[in-house]
């Protein structure tokens, strides 16, 4: 399968860490029942309806253990799969199939759950000008996979990490001594090609951010009425983003406020997994 994740080296390094976490010395159970090589096959079956995501990572988990593992996929990332659907056939050393099962499924279930939840939220924004963004509220060492899953689900990525952009939040503003001071310091320090985003909590801070020349103004934990007033005050002089406990249940309250973006940490920190399973393992003759 072609690599859909741009940084294959980082992805492989993280998968290897996950495998070391699960197999610190040996898979004692597998080695007890299968001490020697035996070719086998197992099926990847979906146990819930949802959006499949992470098939490349699933494949790499087995191929890192044994590059001779062969996988035939019957779906691709972004496809909607149904309960009971056969998603893949995996053929290889039975010891590898058993030892890699949990790590491979952990990645696939987590990424598919995020893609499924993201798609359900993105559907609620259809027909509006507002774009859905993720946040940095990701599982440690899973960000590259979770942010990819958001994109597969129809969302968009906010900055990847702290090196990726300027976002002045409440504590940055407090450290600098105010909204204006924080923006001016960022303008002086950051390269001119970097956009400067600032988080505001009320209309007074919003006005100060506009006057100081912020590129993006994040309206944090404001009511829909306050957001409408803020968008009117900004009047196109900066892009607008809504943030603060945004979920599938309350996002409809935001859709008519006129903001350019809405960011939701729930896409990555609250999405339930999509249930998938490896079933029907059996030996095959060579």
Which percent band covers the strand fraction? 15-25%
User: If strands are numbered along the chain, what order do they take across the biggest sheet?
Assistant: 6-11-10-9-8-7
Overall structural domain count: 2
What is the fold-level CATH name, i.e. the topology of the largest domain?
TIM Barrel
- Parts with pLDDT < 50 across at least 5 consecutive residues: none
* Largest sheet descriptor: 6 strands, parallel
Query: How many distinct beta strands?
Result: 12
Corresponding CATH superfamily of the largest domain: Aldolase class I
The protein's oligomeric status is single chain
The secondary structure category is alpha/beta
Helical proportion, percent range: 40-55%
Radius of gyration: 23 Å
Element order: H for helix, E for strand: HHEEHEEEHEHEHHEHEHEEHE
Description:
- There is one protein chain.
- The protein is 41% helix and 20% strand.
- 37% of the residues are buried.
- The chain has 286 residues and is α/β, with parallel strands linked by helices.
- The strands form three sheets. A six-stranded parallel beta sheet has the order 6-11-10-9-8-7. A four-stranded antiparallel beta sheet has the order 3-5-1-12, covered by helices on one side.
- It has helices spanning 8-22, 28-33, 55-65, 94-124, 143-152, 170-176, 179-189, 203-212, 224-234, 266-269, and strands at 39-46, 50-51, 70-73, 80-81, 86-93, 131-133, 166-168, 196-200, 216-220, 239-243, 261-263, 276-283.
- It has two domains: 8-121 and 272-283, Quinolinate phosphoribosyl transferase, N-terminal domain (Aldehyde Oxidoreductase, domain 3, Alpha-Beta Complex); 124-269, Aldolase class I (TIM Barrel).
């Amino acid at each position: 399968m072609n690599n859909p994740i741009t940084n294959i080296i980082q992805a492989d390094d993280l998968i290897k860490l996950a495998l070391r976490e699960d197999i610190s010395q040996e898979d004692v159970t597998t080695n007890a029942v299968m001490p020697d090589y035996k070719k086998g096959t197992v099926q990847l079956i979906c146990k819930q309806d949802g959006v499949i995501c992470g098939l490349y990572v699933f494949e790499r988990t087995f191929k890192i253990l044994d590059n001779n593992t062969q996988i035939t996929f019957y779906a691709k990332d972004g496809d909607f799969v149904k309960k009971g659907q056969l998603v893949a056939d995996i053929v290889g050393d039975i010891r590898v199939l058993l030892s890699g099962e949990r790590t491979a499924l952990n990645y696939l279930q987590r990424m598919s759950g995020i893609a499924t939840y993201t798609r359900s939220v993105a559907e609620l924004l259809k027909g509006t000008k507002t774009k859905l963004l993720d946040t940095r509220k990701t599982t440690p060492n899973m960000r590259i996979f979770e942010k990819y899953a958001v994109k597969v689900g129809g969302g968009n990525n906010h900055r990847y990490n702290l090196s990726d952009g300027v976002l002045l939040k409440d504590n940055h503003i407090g450290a600098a001594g105010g909204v204006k001071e924080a923006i001016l310091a960022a303008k002086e320090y950051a390269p001119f090609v970097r956009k400067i985003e600032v988080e505001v909590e009320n209309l007074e801070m919003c006005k100060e951010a506009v006057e100081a020349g912020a590129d993006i103004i994040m309206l944090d934990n404001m009511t829909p009425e306050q957001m409408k007033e803020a968008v009117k005050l900004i009047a196109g002089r900066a892009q607008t983003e809504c943030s603060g406990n945004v979920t599938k249940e309350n996002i409809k309250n935001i859709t008519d406020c006129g903001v350019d973006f809405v960011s939701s940490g729930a896409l990555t920190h609250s999405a339930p997994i999509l249930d998938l399973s490896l079933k029907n393992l059996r030996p095959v003759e060579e």
